[in-house]
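ARCHIVE CARD
Drawer: 12
Card no.: 0347
Subject: one protein chain, sequence and derived structure
Cross-reference: see card 0346
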Amino acid sequence: MKVAQRLQGLSTYVFAEIGKKAQACKAQGIDVIRLDIGNPDLMPPQEIIDVLETAVRRPDMHGYPSFYGAPAFRSAVVAYYQRRFGVTLDPETEVLALIGSKEGIHHVPTAFVDPGTVVLVPDPCYPTYRMPTLLVGGELYTMPLRKENDFFPDFGAIPAEILERARVLWLNYPNNPTSAVASLEMLAEAVAFARRHDLLLAYDNPYSEIVWNGAQAPSVLQVPGAKEVAIEFNSLSKMVNMAGWRVGMVVGNAEAVGAIARIKTNADTGIFNPLQEAAVAALQLPDSWHKEHTEVYRRRRNVVTRALDRMNIWYAPYAATLYVWLEIPQGFESSGAFASAMLEQTGVSVSPGTAFGPSGEGYVRLSLVCSEERLEEGMERWERWLAGKSFGMDWK
């Protein structure tokens, strides 16, 4: 047996490896508090579950679903984008259902990247923007996201010779892992840049509903003319706590959506029909539900940031996403060393910044995916541990 050469540089998904480390600590009897992966612990609304239960009992719901998404689901996506962003979409040509947005993100390089061409990716970023490009023989050019630039890329720093070979530009706001929020003005700059250099702007927007304190999370398609160059990915995973249900969508430029559909229809089938029925209901949830949902994350974030303030640790000051992006404390040689030491010595698991790219060095990402009480306990362990290290004492 010979494994394909393309796998030689492909490591196991980083969060699978972090999960293995957490499980190994649990096997040693350590009470692990997992704040590393963005896996919502909250339930979807009961009415969504009721719709699924009713649909799954119908005999007409169990055949192969549409490759493109049921008409009712695509119409619900159109209605959501019109209501939420004022964006008009054609359900037939500008909307494609995905088995979670990760599926469509993975298809983008297959549809648009040839060997030797370039994909522009933020650094740090969600790892799935990077790896599929390498599998098809494309090249990556990383755009550092720095706090002095509000974690937005500096397009002017990209060399002309890179832009001549570039095909795709990835952006994601509210941002994972930094939680930064982009304004419409920043997105208009990105759209103009993509048009100027004949790029597909692939915009990932799964945290669009997880903002508070007056923050606004626009769609890139709100920018006039954006549909000429842009597509947008969205998902119900974080929006409605349906991570395991695997329901997502890509919308926008009809040619690009169609290209992804050509890959998808050859690679898999559609979303289980009862899940699409439930997704229609999820996309119709009122603003009041989303406000209550984000209030949970706001309170959880406050638990974390109060502790970080006490420890004098810098964190990104954004009211969005279910993450806190923070600098590692002094005295640790790397983000990986800090994350490993804290897991092994306190049982608190966070993601090292380098899991998202080289520019993540010096940071870790903490996920707000457990109760306030559990977060309080995790942060208390962290504080006692650092205090103990300062005085050369056992943190316990």
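Annotation on reverse: The longest strand covers residues 166-172. The chain has a mean pLDDT of 93.
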